C-alpha cells in the first residue's frame, strides 16, 4: 500500500508542473487493480473497514492525515477509493503536494499533448512505475499508472486509474 501512495504522490507531483493544475481542493477517485483477486478483495474490504472504524480511532487517523491536507479515503459508489487533497497556492508555486513521501524516489515528467507522461523509481521502498496524466479541462484530469513494487519480498504489479476533479479554491483548515 505504501508503494501505491508514493506512486500517487509522484504522479500528482508531476501534475503540479502542468499549467492546467490549479491550487485548491481536489477529489481523487482511484481504482486499484493488482491482478490478484484476493488482494483486490482486500483493498475493497479496507474501504469498508475504514467506514466502520470506531469513532475515536477514526478521529485519530483523520487527524494524522489532515495534517498533510488529505482526507481519510472512503469507498466510492463505483468501487473506487475516494479521497480529497488540498494544494495551496504556495505549494503549487513550489510544485509541492500535500502527500508526504518518506521514500527515496526520483521521477521524470515529459510534457505531451494534453498532459504528461511520468516515470518514477524509488530505492526505499523499492518500486518503479510509469503513468499518463491527461487533462480533460482545467477542473478535471485522468491518470493511468502501472506500479511495480516489492511487497513482502514478492514482486507485484498494480494498476492505478484515477479520475480527479477540482472541488474549489478553498481547502479545509489544517490542524496545527
UniProtKB/TrEMBL annotation:
Keyword annotations of the record: Signal
Signal sequence extent: 1-18
Family annotation (Pfam families): DUF3617
Matching InterPro entries: DUF3617 (IPR022061)
The name this protein goes by in its record: DUF3617 domain-containing protein
Amino acid at each position: 500500500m505504501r508503494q501505491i501512495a508514493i506512486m500517487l504522490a509522484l504522479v500528482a507531483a508531476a501534475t503540479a508542473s502542468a499549467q492546467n493544475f490549479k491550487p485548491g481542493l481536489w477529489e481523487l477517485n482511484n481504482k486499484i487493480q493488482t491482478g490478484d483477486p484476493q488482494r483486490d478483495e482486500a483493498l475493497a474490504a479496507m474501504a469498508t473497514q475504514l467506514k466502520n472504524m470506531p469513532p475515536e480511532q477514526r478521529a485519530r487517523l483523520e487527524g494524522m492525515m489532515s495534517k498533510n491536507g488529505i482526507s481519510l479515503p472512503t469507498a466510492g459508489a463505483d468501487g473506487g477509493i475516494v479521497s480529497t487533497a488540498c494544494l495551496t497556492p504556495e505549494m503549487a508555486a513550489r510544485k509541492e503536494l500535500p502527500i508526504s513521501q518518506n521514500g527515496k524516489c526520483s521521477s521524470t515528467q515529459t510534457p505531451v499533448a494534453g498532459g504528461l507522461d511520468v516515470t518514477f523509481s524509488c530505492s526505499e521502498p523499492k518500486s518503479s512505475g510509469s503513468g499518463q496524466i491527461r487533462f480533460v479541462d482545467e477542473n478535471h484530469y485522468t491518470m493511468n499508472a502501472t506500479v511495480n513494487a516489492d511487497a513482502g519480498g514478492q514482486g507485484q504489479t498494480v494498476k492505478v486509474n484515477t479520475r480527479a476533479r477540482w472541488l474549489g479554491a478553498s481547502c479545509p483548515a489544517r490542524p496545527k
